[in-house]
Amino acid sequence: MSAYRKETTPPPYCIDERMKIPTESPVLHVASRGIAPVIMLIGLYVFFHGHYSPGGGFQGGVLLAAGVLLLRMTLGVTQSQKLMPTTLTLKLSAVGALIFAGTGLVALLCGGNFLDYHFLPVWFEPVYLRYYGILFIEVGVTITVMTTLIAIYDDLLGC
Amino acid sequence: MPWPIEFLLFVIITVAAVVGLSVRNLLAAAVTFNIFSFMSASIMVSLGAIDVAFTEAVVGAGVVGVYGIIAILLTSRKSRD
After folding, report:
1. Of A14, A35, A125, A133, which has the most beta carbons under 10 Å away?
2. 3-state DSSP call for residue B13?
3. Could you give the number of structural domains in chain B?
4. How far is B59 from chain A (nearest CA, A)?
5. Among all residues of chain A, which has the CA nearest to that of B48?
């Protein structure tokens, strides 16, 4: 493994410089900037409506990531940094995993099982406590899935 | 769902699998894999598994296509050795 690493040259900062700048076609600009907010809105709908219909945290997170990835592909990595900075992606994914595991551990420390929402130290009716507990877990799942997919894209390009 | 539609879906998914494995162009293979994934999602809908179909359509036909195209971008036409 070490001999393999000696022979290969270190990768450049960005694999392809064309992916950092916007594409030439104005049609792609207008179409992507119109479609991407709609995709992210559908992602939020899928996330919040996941209790009653197919969907949930994972699918909503993937749709939110798809909206960002569309702008990453058309506007370039440099101009879409305002929407989701590259340096923030992995940190946010760690925050999402912390939300998921932290809720379970708080329920564990308060006397219940892991992810037992009934024992969370919040004053609610137990039914609503389970309802909002699941919604809070899904927030963590959504943040983790969305930022991890964007981080994979940025890391593949090396940008 | 009536059986001719399901039969058509199975025919399309089989043709897409064979074409995607045998075609030489990498971009065509990636797009054919997307077609395979979308038809798989349609078969899941016909079987009644809406949640699985939604996940398959979003992940397999959406994000994996983007990653495939980026992976093709990382390859080079000729080898460097």
Report:
1. A133
2. helix
3. 1
4. 7
5. A54
- Which tokens go with B67? 């990653």
Residue B17 in domain: yes
Domain assignment of residue A65, yes or no: yes
In a domain, B35, yes or no: yes
Q: Which domain holds residue A36?
A: 14-157
Give tens-digit pLDDT for B25-51.
Answer: 999 999 999 999 999 999 999 999 999
Identify whether B59 is part of a domain.
Answer: yes
Q: Please choose, from the candidates A62, A25, A72, the residue with its C-alpha nearest in 3D space to the C-alpha of residue B73.
A: A72
pLDDT tens string A41-58: 999 999 999 888 888 899
Domain hosting residue B9, numbered range:
3-74
Say which of B53, B58, B67 has its CB closest to residue A63. B58
As for the ipTM of the complex, it is 0.84
Note whether B73 contacts A55, CB cutoff 8 Å.
no
Mean of pLDDT over chain A = 87
Instruction: Count Cβ neighbours within 10 Å for each residue of B28-56 and write b for 16 or more, e otherwise.
Output: ebbbbbbbbbbbbbbbbbbeeeeeebbbb
